[in-house]
């Protein structure tokens, strides 16, 4: 039996995949409401293919509980936020989960940390927790790091098809855990040491952040002289060794906008490029605000309540709003300006900001300037409805010519 701790965006799909492969799984979370919901057969977030996988796991006997289980294998997939002031990782949830595992586990247990952690975290914070209890790591408890690589919106496919990394103290235990993941992962699984596994995960997300920052900087440069940044990136990317990502209204989510800070926090004198990229990406909501002001000025619109932001999620076709550029934009608008700005997202069913509409038609009818902040499929199929509005298209998805760009 595997006990998976943390039933969020990573822990839950991973638990379901193990269950699908025939392994007995118990998912544990301290959130009683969430455990109740899952036990009742209801999901807490939307994701392509998740419902079917969930139903299959339920019929395979997957269980959810607030209690930690006495078993042989544990996977910890709890959040790892960063401390805003110091920019360092806050390991409190991982430490607490590990201690709860140590309260119940048997000697010989395998403890796998899946949560993204900054390089060195496992040696600095997790190993000592185990040793403090009198356990010998590698003998009484096997400690490993198995960071995930799945992208929200395509999680199920990527769980099966993305290569993975297992960080272990010895090749022997690394190979055993590799065998465990091979139950559902069809791609290559690399075994390395724990610190390299920690570092490579953070490096992957930092690389993407820097690449997006480059695209965003190009968008700003092109704006000053009316060049088409998308056309320029498209042409540049035809070069066989160039692959620039797309500019946008900012970088959100709990991964790319967070992980680079771990490196900045731990190596402040060595991270000029990484820090600059973060600042560029964080400046994009302000750039969008500048573009809204340009359009208002050009059309002599003074009333901010005529502006509607489409999209609250951090990216297309997901309902996750963590660090979303729209929320960042609303935070940046001073109170006077924020007053009355309308917001709509077809994926976000709970009211989380002022002036949030629950119905697209009502929203569109009230709006003169529509700002596309997220390129959900939904808006792509509503081009006819929006084409007569003033549209600021920060995602370059409009199929008509009159829209304004970043
Ligand atoms: N974005 C752009 N331009 C682009 C691509 C993305 O502005 O060309 C924006 C998105 O709109 C979004 C943000 O970046 O606001 C992040 O979105 P994303 O789709 O790039 O990535 P995430 O955060 O959903 O998932 C990332 C992935 N990491 C990499 O691709 C290196 C995923 O594989 C990781 O598993 C995940 O982080 C994680 O959990 O760490």
UniProtKB/TrEMBL annotation:
UniProt keyword NAD, yes or no: yes
Signal sequence segment: none
Keywords: NAD, Oxidoreductase
Domain UDP-glucose/GDP-mannose dehydrogenase C-terminal: 308-400
Tree of life domain: Bacteria
Keyword Ubl conjugation: no
Pfam families linked: UDPG_MGDP_dh, UDPG_MGDP_dh_C, UDPG_MGDP_dh_N
NCBIfam families: NDP-sugDHase (TIGR03026)
Protein family according to the UniProt entry: Belongs to the UDP-glucose/GDP-mannose dehydrogenase family.
Record-given protein name: Nucleotide sugar dehydrogenase
Organism this protein belongs to: Evansella alkalicola
